[in-house]
Amino acid sequence: MNKSPHNSTNRFLTHSVAKLLLASVVVSFSVSACGQQATPQSLTLSTSPSNAKNQNEGVSLVSLGDSITFGEHLPGSKLPVVPGKQGTPSKYAYPFLVGKKEKWNVHDLGMAGYTSTQLLRYMKNKRVKHDLRTADVVTVDIGSNDLIAAAYNILEQMFKDPSNTSPQTQQAIFAKALNNYAKKLPEIITQIRKQTDAPIILMTLYDPFPAGSSLHEITEPLLAKANHIVLQTAVEHNCMLANIYSLMNHHQNELVRVKSNDIHPTIAGQEAIANVVENVINNAQNYRPEQYVYTTSDLNIYSHPHPSTSPAATVTAGHLIQVIGRKKDWLRVRTATAQVGYVQRTNLQLIDWPWPRPSHLGPILNNAADNNSGATSQQTPSTAVDSGQIHVQMSPSIKGFRFHNTIYASLSQLAKAIGANLQVGTENQTIDVQTILQSGIKGWVDTHKTPPVLHYFWPMYESPDQITGKGDYNVHYTATGTTQFVQLQQTDYLLEIDGEPVRLNAPVIQLGQGQFLNSGQNLYVPVYEFWKALGGNTKQ
Q1: Are 334 and 373 a contacting pair, CB within 8 Å?
Q2: What residue ranges define each of the domains in the chain, with the CATH number in brackets?
Q3: Mind listing the pLDDT tens digit for each residue in 10-55?
Q4: Pairwise CA distance, residues 389 & 158, whole Å
Q5: What DSSP string describes 375-417?
Q6: What is the pTM of this model?
Q7: Residue closest to 29 by CA, chosen among 168, 233, 229
Q8: What sign does the dihedral 266-240-429-9 (CA atoms) show?
């Protein structure tokens, strides 16, 4: 069973959904597609007979999607007069920006207003099939209108029968839309594969609403679920993944047309998306998600996909083994010792990793290397660290230290400082930091209280004269000049903020033994990256 990316309770209050729709501003998703095998530096463009062409014809980029791909509301975009026709996409849309920089031919097939169901039907179009057959790279951007349609369904029911629009009913409508999206997105990839073996890039879905607004609180749980569908599709269909959610989050005022009450990207937003796509193209090996089996008990590995054969190896509990293929009810796996075999898919704990997992990390919970896992522990019983203090504006100082030129701070103390809940899942290897109103640390601090009280500014409900003091949310590290010897171990934990994975340039570290692991008391994170992911400022 795959882990759920978000455990917090969904809040779909009737009046909030009405505001969501009446404001004509709704959830926005960006999906990009999966890829074939990559070279160490960049993705490998298709060279199969079906895609062979004269070199002088250039590389072809085909982009499928909705209004984000189309570049709606940007200069040069013209919606079609006849429904079902494409219209004229903007040259400022990200496919054309990628093509201009890479000097590629671009086929922007974005269809404004399309859901995943409509895009799947559109795959039968002769032009789509023709363009895909000549594609060297394919991107897909779809999903926002699936949830918009669900929201309008709720609003319609509200007008017909207000008594039949309870929060449970609303949740059921959104769940139905997400289930349909989970079916249609893989089918779209399958239809693409029938026309081309070109790499495909999938992009995660972004939240157009700034942190601290009521709409942000509504959309975040939906996005976490939808983005897990995108990740799952990328994993199971050998796709690459571009994280547009993290790109846009906490930068909506610059990258999204929020000042015009519009959910679509600004020109700067389209340029930022184009840069992410180019980065995936040029560094494909860093953007291919992976799937792992977490061994909750001893697991037999067979040399052939048949249980009658004797196990070739056994991996003990508490380890991750990578899934590298699928064959009916069997998974082809590779252990940390590079041993390849098969495991039965039934009742396994599967974990989808948004990017390649570092190969140097040690066992999940064990302090010593295990011969079955082949992982080498990075435990350092006598490691010298420079101790110091992490100063956070709205809280007392937090203990921190410098290790391998990275400043670490206590995860549990950081979470407490911003009023967030912390959930550590030892079985799904995930740390989920659930912030107030799912808004990171955007908001304000009442500096007249002792200690300072953290609040959040909701522009729909509060007026400026109610704000007694705004916070800058700075964090900085001050070394004390002392050196301590501590026991450290790098961990495999995936850090999530409000259900969305955060990519760190250094691993989460376990300090000492694991008796407080579930509460996160002995887990430390790279503080500057963590704080920026929350939307805060840093000062080194």
Answers
A1: no
A2: 14-286 (3.40.50.1110), 290-353 (2.30.30.40), 380-539 (no CATH)
A3: 333 334 444 444 343 343 333 333 433 333 345 555 544 344 444 4
A4: 53
A5: PPP--EEEEEEEEEEEEETTS--EEEEEETTEEEEEHHHHHHH
A6: 0.80
A7: 229
A8: positive
